[in-house]
Amino acid sequence: MTVWNFSAGPSKLPTEVLEQAAAEMMDWHGSGMSVMEMSHRGAEFTQICDEAEEDLRQLLGVPDDYAVMFMQGGATAENAIIPMNLLQVRPANTADYVVTGSWSAKSYKEAARYGEVRLAASSNSEIILNGQSYGAYCWVPEFSQWSVNPEASYLHMCTNETIGGVEMFALPDMQELGAADVPMVLDMSSHFLSRPFDVTKAGLIYAGAQKNAGPAGVTVVIARRDLLGKAMAVCPSTFDYVNVAEQRSRFNTPPTYGIYMCGLVFKWLLRQGGLTAMKAANEAKAECLYAALDASDFYTNKIHPAFRSQMNVPFVLADDSLNEAFLAGAKARGLLGLKGHKSVGGMRASIYNAMPIEGVKALVEYLKEFEREHG
């Protein structure tokens, strides 16, 4: 039986990557060592880490005036690391946050521990759009409704909410918002590398690797170099972006094996045709799954269509009492990781880069079968 892993993260990795890692486990390229055993300052790991950075730069077109850093602590740790590094970038020592779901709400709350932060926009309320009612965190406020402090050190937003399944497909024009000098800071964890992205539109982007980039344990941070160097005195030296950037992610011992795995994923992405190819594949998968949900009264996706995530697709059954039967039937068919986040319930299918269209089609067939039996 083929197993399809729809987990939101840690999530499915490309089969080719796992096979290569398995083949190299005991002896990396004739070194006589596993990558797990290598010194992070040795020639072998230096090559692995530098190649991973170079391949990531190629995938995203990252210019030299941006630092690429492989860090630890996940995107959750960056909720503290970012304000400690960036709140003092401008004299006002304040930052603005846009809250569109659970993760950006956590980012906002954490940043407030380190200084003054304000809410620039929020979707934490019910709204009626085009005659249709949408609940909290099921939509994104129009950019014209955002209130951004022109003196803020940065504007933070989560561009894909993993739990709620809300994705931003465009970014605001900061000049139109009257805040041309305010850099955007983007949590892109759950749609990082899913499509082309112009890094230069943001001052900093960050992403936990365990969605599209590799295994849990690595956090990718890409930051404009001119924003570095203003860290608070309380910022640990290992989390000061200046130190991490200057030492090319090797200021202290980094998650060496995780970085190696990320490097394999980056090379896999390049072999697939890069992010343009990923965009086409991800659009096709999302269209297939949403079409099946929309064709049925038995399943419902509650997100405004303009903001439906292509990576994380939450849905609910018409009868919650059938949830356990649905999950049991899915598991029996090799469809795993479909239970929704505990904070929202229901179901969620995460269809990241490594999930092929065949997995989505298998899920769609099961959706139809379950509805026939229980609808």
Entry keywords:
globular; three-stranded antiparallel β-sheet; 16 strands; Aspartate Aminotransferase, domain 1; 375 residues; alpha/beta; Aspartate Aminotransferase, domain 2; 2 domains; seven-stranded mixed β-sheet
Q: What's the CATH topology label of the largest domain?
A: Aspartate Aminotransferase, domain 2
Order of helices and strands: EHHEHEHEEEEEEEEEHHHEEHEEH
- Regarding quaternary structure, what we see is single chain
How many runs of DSSP E, i.e. beta strands?
16
Helix content: 25-40%
- The CATH architecture of the largest domain can be given as 3-Layer(aba) Sandwich
Give the number of domains. Answer: 2
Largest sheet: 7 strands, mixed
In whole angstroms, how far apart are the ends? 26 Å
Q: Looking across the biggest beta sheet, what order are the strands in? A: 2-12-11-10-7-3-4
Percent of sequence in beta strands: 15-25%
What number is the mean pLDDT? 98
Q: Uncertain segments of ≥5 residues (pLDDT<50)?
A: none
Can you tell me the CATH superfamily of the largest domain? Type I PLP-dependent aspartate aminotransferase-like (Major domain)
Describe this structure in words.
Its EC number is 2.6.1.52. Pyridoxal 5'-phosphate binds at residues 75-76, 103, 162, 187, 210, 252-253. Belongs to the class-V pyridoxal-phosphate-dependent aminotransferase family. SerC subfamily. It is found in: Cytoplasm. Pathway: Cofactor biosynthesis; pyridoxine 5'-phosphate biosynthesis; pyridoxine 5'-phosphate from D-erythrose 4-phosphate: step 3/5; Amino-acid biosynthesis; L-serine biosynthesis; L-serine from 3-phospho-D-glycerate: step 2/3. The strands form 5 sheets. The protein has a 7-stranded mixed sheet with strand order 2-12-11-10-7-3-4, sandwiched between helices. The protein starts with a strand and ends with a helix. The longest helix is centred in the last third of the chain and has 21 residues, at 274-294. The radius of gyration is 21 Å and the shape is globular. Helix 1 crosses helix 6 (256-272) and helix 2 crosses helix 6. It is α/β, with parallel strands linked by helices. It contains 9 helices and 16 strands. It folds into 2 domains: 16-272, Aspartate Aminotransferase, domain 2 (3-Layer(aba) Sandwich), CATH 3.40.640; 274-374, Alpha-Beta Complex (Aspartate Aminotransferase, domain 1).
